[in-house]
Design brief:
Layout (H helix, E strand, L loop, with lengths): L9 H4 L4 E2 L10 H13 L10 H20 L8 E4 L2 H16 L5 E5 L8 H10 L2 E5 L19 E7 L11 H11 L4 E5 L11 H4 L3 E5 L10 E5 L1 H6 L10 E4 L4 E3 L13 H17 L1 H23 L3 E3 L11 E6 L4 H10 L2 E2 L1 E3 L4 H7 L4 E5 L6 H18 L1
Parallel strand pairs: 1-13, 3-4, 3-5, 5-6, 6-7
Antiparallel strand pairs: 2-8, 7-8, 9-10, 11-12, 12-15, 14-15
Helix pairs in contact: 2-9, 3-9, 4-5, 10-13, 11-13
The structure holds pyridoxal-5'-phosphate.
């Protein structure tokens, strides 16, 4: 099993770190860090404004990142790619700019119980503000969405917002099949996909998926923090209101009237996160060099090893959320361990230099639905190794000894 650890400089200063929190944010490869330093060292000018060399260089690099993102998710045109701060902002953008235009009293806004708060609260607020009905689709006890959506989507359903991969369950939802059903039940329904956890699990093709919007964050795919993406079908972007108002998003401003730019610039008011956008392009170069297929295969294999090791060692004393099989796990393990408090477990793991999360992972409705107030979450990426998993199991045995 080849590890990609050498590409990630954090291990130079932290050789013993067992980083199991990639669901929160992935580590950054050297090329991405170098790309940030390169911008600030060599051409740190603003974009679009200057008619001088380094500004043109920055603009070119910024727009080239847009092209890379478009190609990466197979968007039909790069104008369908909007740079935001993160997934949360991308989802809020749709809720404000389009949601408030198309949703009114008596309509329906649908999400699932699997959603991260970022793909739950904006829609809940939209429904409350407009007087629409907020419908939450439940799952079975393993977090599996229903196969049949005919009793869910009606002629009043304006928006369905769904996560591709839950940050708790960690198994891809069959969104292509679900979207096909939604289209058949109501062709007018706008489908929004939260892809924050899906970008490294399989090759995303927005045309094939046929979603209207797709939101994700750079920092969960080896890129920097501070940059996110919203893909939107061009026609819907044209129809939407602007999101933030100010510089760069206008065509002309007068006392009487302001005219706005076309997408994507209509949605990119003010100075963007230039270095971060460029470095996101570099992260995509890195992913393409390894390939999504190889990343996914590596993480799946390691997940299988981790699942089996946890079950072999702790049996029924560990409850891992989601389907009870090693298969198709995409590196995410949210679990209850005996009756120990998740924060106590995470604290002890930290004393062994193991970084995990404890809490509700911004998915309180899901935790309540599955009957767990909180869990510990360990997540794997390509820089993790079997040795990391072994250290994790060893440390959990110490947790058992200390807390029993
Ligand atoms: C499934 C999912 N959606 C949305 C988000 C929000 O991402 P961000 O904090 O980058 O906006 C996360 C973050 O963990 C997530 O896992």
């Amino acid at each position: 099993m080849k590890s990609f650890r050498k590409d990630f400089p954090i291990y130079v200063s932290n050789p013993d770190l067992v980083y199991l929190d990639s669901t929160a944010t992935t580590l950054k490869p050297k090329t991405v860090i170098d790309s940030l330093v390169d911008y600030y060292s060599n051409y740190s000018a603003n974009v679009f404004r200057g008619i001088y060399r380094i500004s043109e260089q920055a603009t070119e690099a910024y727009e080239s990142a847009r092209e890379k993102v478009a190609e990466f998710i197979k968007a039909k045109r790069s104008e369908e790619i909007i740079f935001t701060r993160n997934t949360t902002e991308s989802l809020n953008l749709v809720a404000y700019a389009l949601g408030r235009k198309i949703v009114s009293e008596g309509d329906e806004v649908v999400v699932s119980i699997l959603e991260h708060h970022s793909n739950f609260v904006p829609w809940q607020s939209l429904a409350f503000e407009t007087g629409a009905d907020f419908k939450v689709v439940e799952t079975d006890k393993f977090g599996t969405l229903p196969n049949d959506w005919s009793s869910i989507v009606t002629k009043k359903t304006k928006i369905v917002a769904l996560t591709f991969v839950s940050n708790v369950i960690g198994i891809p939802n069959p969104l292509k099949k679900i979207i096909k059903q939604i289209r058949a039940l109501n062709p007018e329904t706008v489908v929004v996909v939260d892809s924050a956890q899906a970008m490294l699990t399989s090759k995303i093709d927005v045309s094939d998926l046929d979603c209207d919007f797709l939101a994700f964050s750079g920092h969960k795919m080896f890129g920097p923090t501070g940059v996110g993406v919203l893909y939107g079908k061009y026609k819907l972007l044209e129809e939407s209101y602007p999101f933030l108002y100010g510089g760069e998003m206008i065509l002309s401003v007068s006392v009487a009237k302001t005219l706005f730019q076309d997408p994507p610039f209509k949605f990119e008011a003010g100075t963007p996160a230039i270095a971060e956008v460029i470095a996101l392009g570099t992260a995509i170069d890195y992913i393409n060099s390894v390939t999504v297929e190889q990343i996914s295969e590596y993480v799946s294999d390691l997940s299988g090893y981790c699942y089996k090791s946890l079950k072999q060692e702790f049996g029924e004393c560990i409850s891992i959320l989601g389907p009870q099989s090693a298969k198709s796990r995409k590196g995410i393990f949210a679990f209850k361990f005996f009756d120990f408090h998740p924060h106590d477990i995470a604290g002890i793991l930290n004393s062994y230099n193991i970084a995990v999360r404890a809490g509700h992972h911004c998915a309180m409705p899901l935790h309540n639905h599955l009957g767990y107030p909180a869990t510990v979450r360990a997540s794997l990426q390509i820089y993790n190794t079997k040795e990391d998993v072994d250290k994790f199991i060893f440390a959990l045995k110490q947790v058992k000894k200390k807390l029993s």
